[in-house]
Amino acid sequence: MVEYQIKVRGITDERLLDAFRKVERHLFIPGNSCQFAYDDGPLGIGEGQTISQPYIVALMLDLMKIKPEDIVLEIGTGSGYQTALIAELAQRVYSIERILSLAKNAEQLLKKLGYSNIKIQRGDGTVGWTSENESEKDITFDAIVVSAAAPSIPWGLIAQLKEGGRLVLPCGSRYVQDLICVKKEHGKIKKENFGGCQFVPLIGEQGWEK
Ligand code: SAM
Predict the structure, then answer these.
(1) Fewest beta carbons within 10 Å, which of 39, 117, 162, 164?
(2) What does residue 73 show for φ and ψ, rounded to 5 degrees?
(3) What is the dihedral of CA 71, 72, 78, 83, to 10 degrees?
(4) What are the residues facing 201 on neighbouring strands?
(5) CA-CA distance, 175 to 189, in Å (whole number)?
(6) CA contacts within 13 A on the Cβ side of 7
């Protein structure tokens, strides 16, 4: 998977490639589909949701330019596979999933795999990380990734992006989107388009209606 799907398409960051070598994708795919875990495509993870094609996950993480000291926010935990990859690359990962059963399964699996730098919340990620915890009230992130298709860039996420931070998300219609990387520089937003993609919809206050 790493050699023939990711490296060959131009992802060369060795720290990122090592994370893909380490995290076993088949552990995150339920039922019979786990035999296709290393194939070059998306797969179902239950509740009508999908785990993205490995290359798309790699491209999004590459665009995020995650450093070991970074605090990262992920919207759309899904199976927890991408969460584990981020946990390998960053200091800490905060992840939000809308569907309770997916959030619970991912949390259990990631705990079983020994990750101690991940915090999962069930809720609407379009408004960012919300917490009653005083230390997390005004939290901001070095990088944010949205793994579901947004109709526009959620302003709540821009507000939680640190100066110099990177937000990567699929943005467009409900069925076809462009992969966008947003950088916050000197308080201003710079957008770059990395081409077409297809994700399940981001459902919530600053996303699509259910
Ligand atoms: N990255 C995940 C993985 O590795 O398995 C796959 C994510 S899947 C393509 C998109 C996920 O976003 C789904 O699990 C869906 O329930 C979730 N989602 C959709 N809208 C959301 C929202 N507003 N807040 C949080 N999660 C949301």
Answers:
(1) 164
(2) -110, 130
(3) -60
(4) 149
(5) 25
(6) 11
Pairing status of strand 188-197 against strand 49-51? unpaired
CATH number of 2-197: 3.40.50.150
Burial class (CB in 10 A: 0-12, 13-18, 19+), 39: middle
CA of 161 to the centre of ligand 1 (A): 19
**What is the pairing mode between strands 118-122 and 92-97?**
parallel
Predicted confidence (pLDDT) per residue in 128-137, tens digit? 999 989 989 8
Mutate to test the pocket of ligand 1, among 200, 205, 206 (most ligand atoms within 8 A of CB): 200
Give tens-digit pLDDT for 152-195: 999 999 999 999 999 999 999 999 999 999 999 998 999 999 99
- Give the span between the Cα atoms of 148 and 202, in whole angstroms: 5
By three-state DSSP, how is residue 135 classified? helix
pTM: 0.97
Summarised one tens digit per residue, pLDDT across range 57-112 is 999 999 999 999 999 999 999 999 999 999 999 999 999 999 999 999 999 999 99
